[in-house]
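Now produce a polypeptide, keeping tokens residue-aligned:
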Amino acid sequence: MRGYLLLTGGVLAVVLGLYVLAVLLEIPVLTDPVPLMRRSGALAAGIGVGLLSLDVVIPVPSSLVMIAHGALFGVWGGAGLSLLGGAAATLIGFLTGRVVRDPMRRLTNPRLRARTERLLGRWGWLAVLATRPVPVLAETVSVLAGATTMRWPGVLAAGVLGNLVPALAYAWAGATATRAVGGALVFGAVLGLTALAALLAVVVRGRPVRAAGR
């Protein structure tokens, strides 16, 4: 497990460090990208998707971007753009994990690695789904998924499903001009709904196992 713990801690440290650096430097596009998006016209779609896609490597206020998508392109258009950016971010994180997978394997015991990867093969998609709305954890888990034997189609599908509720909810908040209070309420509701979906998935996934044991 040492290799996975080192990777997880390393990714967390890098992402948190980038967030702190962005706050200290007060980079406008990384602290509040909404003004830039509002004055960019149709280009705002590309800016928003690009920022969400790069959320793995640069600290992006993704909730503000998704709210701006809703304000500028409506509920469905904004949600679609946010889903596209979130899916790209999941893939970039996964590919980053693939790059470090071989070096990391040299730090792990083969027997423990096989056991861990079996566990992640069964439940890793759920971790990707459940953490997509959570800043920092979302990036960390997508990188960790790429460092295992998980396949990209399953990781991408989990990432899209995990982004579905946040994309719709934040787009609604933006389209109905509830950016400040609505954004906070939406974040809490998104976390609650995601936790509920994750719990349901655990119950459904666990039933065949219990039945087979009888």
About this structure: The chain has nine helices and no strands. The radius of gyration is 18 Å. Confidence is low (pLDDT under 50) at residues 179-183, 207-214. The first helix runs from residue 2 to 25.
